[in-house]
Amino acid sequence: MPRDPAIPIAGGSLSLGAFADPLLVDPGPSLLSAVVETYREAAPDLVDPDLHALRSAASDGPEPIAARAGLPSLTVLASSAAFDSVTKGFRDASRLAALATADVIDLLTLADPQPNALLAGDETGCVLVGVAGEEDARWRRVGDDPTLRDRYERTVSDADPYRIDTPSRCRVYAAFEERCGRAVATDAVRLLDPGPDLSATDPVGPRTRAYVVGARHRTHDRTLRRACEDAGLGSPSTFTRIKRRLIDAGLVETERVARPVGRPRERVVAADPLSGPPIERVADVLRESLGE
């Protein structure tokens, strides 16, 4: 049986599955991160899948994983600042994106701050007050109010969705496997795995890393850019700029590939500084060569 997602509270835990149609209102970054973490612990194959799970999900899609896990659906009404805080890093953002893509968590933007965070269902609701624990931040459940959720129905219906630009790991893997094959998909995920600190603004960020993986596998440029676009990493024009930057730095070269019919295609090929190192060293080589 899958583990029931539960928020750590003083003296125990608060099960999300115990609330009918649960709504979480105005969580701070630490509480929102704890929610994502409890879903990750309950369904790692959905939220933070390893390569084995990614290969299965590429065939089944994320929805069957969520259905098999039996996860409770949660509506989160939070400030843009709270969402932005927990999606700065690529890995953290991809975890929340996985939950949103599978319709496990519905992300809505809260316009006005509330006095406290609260968790409410159709039959009960409570305030969550932060308390300082010895090792980590926890929360205390206060009150039992069955009318709490009803008071936020109008706010929920009027709220704008929060959009996550970072794709889930499942989406990245599936796009590269379909367009470029399993080996490219595997390396793409591995190179995007340095941890939660990799941000979209990193000079050697997710887009550059994904394109470099294709070059190391001598992928056709058009196919590679389509894979990056399908993965939700950026537009084709974005990868045109990345390609030029890598060529100018002497890290990538191009080859024309003749075809029996139609115009020749162009293959991107990693040059010597980039083609030899193991995948774990590629980001360091990029930084050294690009002077970042």
Helix percentage range: 40-55%
* Count of DSSP strands: 11
Q: State the secondary-structure class.
A: alpha+beta
The oligomerization state is single chain
CA distance, first residue to last residue: 47 Å
Principal-axis shape: elongated
Give the rounded overall mean pLDDT: 89
Biggest sheet: strands side by side, in what order?
8-7-6-3-4-5-9
CATH architectural grouping of the largest domain: 2-Layer Sandwich
Q: In this structure, how is the largest beta sheet organized?
A: 7 strands, mixed
Any idea of the CATH class of the largest domain? Alpha Beta
Task: Please give the radius of gyration in angstroms.
Answer: 22 Å
Structurally, the number of domains stands at: 2
Instruction: Outline the low-pLDDT stretches.
Output: none
Order of helices and strands: EEEHHHHEHHEEEEHEHHHHHEEHH
The number of distinct helices, counting runs of at least 4 residues, comes to: 14
What proportion strand? 15-25%
By CATH, the topology of the largest domain is Endonuclease, Chain A
InterPro entries: TbsP-like_N, TbsP_C
Pfam families: HTH_TbsP_C, TbsP_N
Domain Transcriptional regulator TbsP-like C-terminal: 169-279
Domain Transcriptional regulator TbsP N-terminal: 67-167
